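Exercise 3.2. Students should predict the tertiary structure of the chain below and write it as structure tokens, then compare their answer with the key that follows.

Predict this chain's 3D structure.
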Amino acid sequence: MAYIGKTPVLGNFVKLDAISVVNGQAAYTMQNGSVNFTSYDNVNQFLVSLNGILQSPTDSFTVSGSTLTFASNLSTGDVIDFVMVLGNTLDVGTPSDNTVTSAKLATLTSAMNFQGTASDMRLNFDTTDTVANATPLMAITAKNKTDSVAQLSMRRESAVDDGYIALSTQPTGGAVTERVRIHSNGVMSAANGIALGVGTANTASNVLDDYEEGTWTPTVNQGTINNVGSTYTKIGNKVTIWSSINTFSNRTSTETVEVSGLPFSIASQNQNRVVGSIVMNYSNKLVHASYSRSNSTIAFYISIAGAFVPLKFNDLNNSASNIIFTATYEV
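Answer key:
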């Protein structure tokens, strides 16, 4: 509330600088840290000890501004033991350093505002122990009627200085679960995918929930091959494979060339519909082809004179023949 007149001095207890007695003098200047002291409200806040005896305010001394005046002149041999000034004990002033605990803080009912230079706009959390990995070093939790809704935390990932940021949410009737993690190397992981192109909406058809890159090892149904290099990229439920194979050990079989070892199985509804192309070195010609097969195998068909015919091993009887192919299918 507002005050009429001078605002009461808050509860800050001060011991004033020592005062030396001057023979025949009643008035003395009060100082705190060599600075004239006037931070009080009235004489009743003073504890003055003279010759080991507490003096009575108003009766034995008065104060005005920075001047303390005794009721009679002091003489040689008198000692002003101390002068203490008490704040208004009905109010709380500036607490001493390291004296306020979390139990003494009230629940905030309004926003907390920080103002100052840019370098000071931060909260610092510094643990004094070495915690186990994944243990929160700090966390900010938002709740609605005691139910957690979301949590932002920072935790150790492995080494002491190897940390990560975790964002957790709680679905209705569920538990607080980590959804997004920013690793110490800057890579971000999203447990359930990222919705693209829909702003902040959570539209299932726009969620990218899987991405993977890697290598795979093709095998053939007849003989062996030399796998020069085979890679794949999986985006959502679509997989694109690439491979370069040569040195066929069986170049006389009339069997259709089939390749197995796909990194992911083909979805049943898409079997016999895998699409792609082959670039084959055969009699110094490049032949394009398409292929299809079961959920784990693809068979090659080449286009000759407008018709698709199976690619057979004996079509690769030229020792220089090799196959480079790519295909895309749904898992």
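Discussion points: The radius of gyration is 42 Å. The chain has three domains: 14-85, 133-208, 214-330.
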